[in-house]
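Here is an idea for our session: we take a single protein and study its fold together. Which protein we use is up to you, so please pick one and set it down. Once you have written the record down, we can walk along the chain together:
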Amino acid sequence: MNETFTCIVDSHHGVYIPQVATDLLRYAWLNPSQEDLEAIYDGPDSGWYWEAWENLLSLPVVLDGDSYFLHLGESGDLFLIPESQADAFFDDLI
């Protein structure tokens, strides 16, 4: 597999990774719920922050016409996985 994954948010952001990613990808996610976006912007003390983040992680991202999926690595870094490589990538995780 040709692994051309892009780290878009690194782990040093800690609990704020969802907010940083949402700032970067707000208009790239396909059909995010307004409630999820608001919960992320409310911050980690919001009762729905982590659930909203899980919902957003499950949505595809479209950038420059190409589709991607997100993967939060064990190190805490957030990666863009090209749709063309997603099946093989996620199969390898299982």
Notes: Residues 36 and 53 are 7 Å apart (CA to CA). The beta strands are 6-9, 61-63, 66-72, 78-82. The mean pLDDT is 89.
